[in-house]
Structures are given as C-alpha cells and as structure tokens.
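RETRY 2/3 - previous attempt timed out on the joint model. Re-submitting the same 558-residue input unchanged.
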Amino acid sequence: MIRQLKLEFLKLIRSRSFLLSFIALTTFVALMLWGFYSYAERKAGEQVTQQFKYTYESKSYFNGLTFALYSVMFSFSLLIPIFVAMTAGAQIAGERQAGTLRMICVRPVSRVSLLLSKFLVVAFYAYLLVTFFIGLNLLVGLCFVGWGDLQLYPGALNLVDEPGKLARDEALLRFAYASLSGTWALLVIAAVAMLFSVLFESPAIATVATLALYLVFHIIGRVEFFEHLRPYFFTTDMDFWRDVFKPEIPWQSFRHYGSICGAYIFGILLLAIAIFDRKDITN
Amino acid sequence: MWAKVLLIALCLLMIGTAIHFDPLRQRSLLASGSHDGPHLRLITWNIGYAELENDSRAHTKDMQAVADAILSNDPDAVALQELTGTEQLNVLLSYLRGRYSGAVAPPGNSDRVEAVLVKGRNARFEQVPADGKYAIAASFHLQPQLPEIVLISAHADAFKAARRRVFTGEVVDWARNRPRRSIVLIGGDFNFELNPRDESHLYTDNIKDDSEAYSYALKYFRDLGRDAGYTAVDDRRIDYLFGLPEMVLLRRAEVLRSAGVGQMDHWPLLIEVAL
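RETRY 2/3 succeeded.
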C-alpha cells in the first residue's frame, strides 16, 4: 500500500494538471488582490468615510485577514472544486484512456488498494491545494494589505447574525482549521469524481459529470423554488466548513454536517470500490 | 475485503455521529437574566398590505381587527407602520376604547405614515426626522419612579438599501442621543435583507448597505426579536425591535402569526422586557 501511495503521488506531481491548478490559484489571488485593493481605496478613502459615517468599511476593516477571508470564500465554492474534480476524475478513467489500467490490474495488487491509494493521494492533493491557497492569501494579505483583527458583519458572506470580531492570532488559527474543514468538504466532490472515474471511460466525461452534478446542486440550492429540497443536496452539507470563521464555532452543527459529509465520502467510495472490483476492463 | 468492511464501518459511524450531533436545538432568549423587575410589553406591526394590492397602505376596514389584536395582547406601547394618516389613527384609537393615546408622524416624502400608541394618556410625542421623512417617538413612564421610556416607530425604504442605511443611521443617532437615564427602544419595519443565501449573486451593494445599517443599529442596541423568527411573508424577518442591552432584560419575543388580517404581509412582533 505504501509503495502504491508513493507511485500514485509521483504520478500526481508529474501531471500537468497539478502545476496548472497551483498557477490558476495564484492568478486568482493576484486578481483578487487587484480588485480588493482598488475597492478598499475607493471605499475607505478619507473623503468617503468623512462623507458617510454609517459604513464599517474603514481602513481597519480592509486588512489582510479580510482579504484572505473573502478570497477563500469566493474561490471555495466555484474554483477549487474544479481542480479537485479534474484530478479525482482522471484517476481511473485516465489510466483506462492511457491503456495502463489493464496492465496495473494484472499485477499482484488488489483493485481495492489501487482505488484507495488513488483516493488518498487525491485527498492529500486537496489538502495541499487548500493549504497553499489559504497560505498564499494570508501571505499576500500581510505583504500588500497589512494585518489587523478580522471583523465580521451580518449579511456580508452570511457568517454571523450580529457584528463580531476575531483577534488576529485567533483568526489565523481559524484559517488553519479551515484548511482541514475545507479539505473534508472537498473530499465529497473527490469521492463523486472517483465514482464517475470508475463508471466512465474518459477522464473528461468523469470530470464534467462531477462538475455538472455539483453545479446543478449548488445553483438549485440557491433558487428559492427549491428551498424545500436544499437539505437533501450534498452541497448544503459541504457548507459546514465555513463555520470555523464564526466568532463562536457552532460545534454541534459543525460535527453534524461534517459527519454527513463523511457518510457521503465513505458511502460513495464504497460504491466506487464495489463497481470497480467487478468491472471488466476490456480496453 | 478488510477495506470494504472498514469503509462500511466508517460510513455507519459517520451516519451515527450525524444523528447524535443534531444541530436543531432549542432556541434561547437573549439575555434572560435571573432577576425580574416591572415588565414592559411592546408591539411593532406594519399593518400595510402586500405590494400586489392597489393600495398597499393600511386599510381602515381592518382597524377593528388591529384593535382587537392590540387589546388581547395588552401591550404598554405599540409602534405601527404604513397608516394612511391621522384619520385612520383616530378610527383605531376609537376601537381601542380610549385605553391608548397616539400620534402619527408627518408624511414627509412618503404617502404613508408611522404611528405610536401608548397605554394611558400621559405620553409625549415627538417627530424624528430621518432621510427626508419622519419617524415618531413616544415618551412615557411605566411607573412614576421608573426611568422614562422612549419608543420610536420607524419604517425604512422598502426598495433602496442605500436609503435604508441613511434612514437607520439617523434614527439610531437620534435614539442614542436621548437623555442617559431614558430607556430607548426602536421598533419598526426596516426591510433589511441580510441573507445572501437566497440571492443568486455572491455579493452586492444591497446586502452590504443593509449589513452596515443593521450593524450600526447593533453597535448601540440589541436586536430583541432575533430569535422570534420571520415577521413577514416569504419567511422574511424585516420587523425589528431594538433595545439598549444594559437597560432591559428580554422576557418574551414572539411573532403573533394569527393576528394578520386582509392582505397584510406582516405579523406583529411582541416583545416583553423586564426593566
């Protein structure tokens, strides 16, 4: 299993999509910085704050931690899932398309350990991606925007019911928590992509099918007509990762939704293994 | 085989954990202290009609039902919104059998007015200018030895978040500049939209403006009706009663969902505090 993990890891870091994902995230951070910086300049300029006193958008509000929070929140639901789905979707279907799956399967390695090792590598990749992204945002925030406390207000980002604040060190700890809770939430997408990777012949189809499912649930979950269906979408449960940024983490619901995500992850993975174990590899 | 068994066990463990950590918990009232003083009961109610109606202001034919709802809950003061004017208020006061006195705000740049009612006849009424229109405040004493109570009835713009922000800011500034010993409460329909989950976009100025207005109010006051649930159709919580946290202890917060009549799109929010 260890050797298998090592091999899968080598395959991952040598793939082009691995590098591409980190470049894309870095570009996104640069774009966010430009947008945030110009917005903050516009909104927190002396003339504006003197003219209007009811705003909380002051120079102390726009700091590196706020920048990192906005960047992470915006990218998490739509950008990072693309890379996770792409990598996980390519795991089995990619081997099949390259013609190497049959060869791997005739070797004395069980299909279960093959799929599990691939999933563990995807999980590590998701963690690496999230940690890199959060770390980069914090670094860029520190260097270009400056640090302070993380101020939270109701409405914006839908995190709190009343104004709250996280002291700088506490906020940094919460970002560390977010790297773990975010990875756990992303593993649901990874498990779905692994299942589709087993079911479909092409990695492109597996990736697109995963993203289509994710986006359909994500969008439908925001449409009021389907409000009653919202609790049944895995995208709703995945949202639990954001709770770590609340001044008081609601541990009860955090564990509840985290566990539901876990049930999705292990349930879907089990299904993928059951199908893969019995599947004829004909090409 | 071991891997499959492990995955089944982990899946079942996760389901069990999810059931064990049920996030639905009994909501508790904010700041429920142990001691008890005299109780003050307040209602805020937008008695206007839904936008689909020809005239979305309050209808005079409903005043009997409004009066019945007020009398059955026996509040010490009531903040009402979207009345047509003094005439309508007088009809309501007549149905209240002389138990309440009241006043309406001048219309300003709006076609509807706010009103405030106080049990008894010893209240003083004052106009609160805010963003080109008016709110109305009533000052009264629950008992002679207790501090003066000031209840403001306000109605923020239903369509423009930027105007809501200015209006709320000016009402809050007026309220917090009352004499220090006064117990100040602000009731009304503020129309804040604070839940971007229901929006199809990620971030808009509307949400930011409402967020800033609400945050400004919470800088000085506490949202006493926060746990009472939605106050208007479409599950919206847009009617608020703000009170100074150090002056009052919340005892009851309830939306009276059986009180609406006709095509009203709001329900009264009842708040009871201990002084």
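The beta strands of chain A are 150-152, 164-166. Closing ticket.
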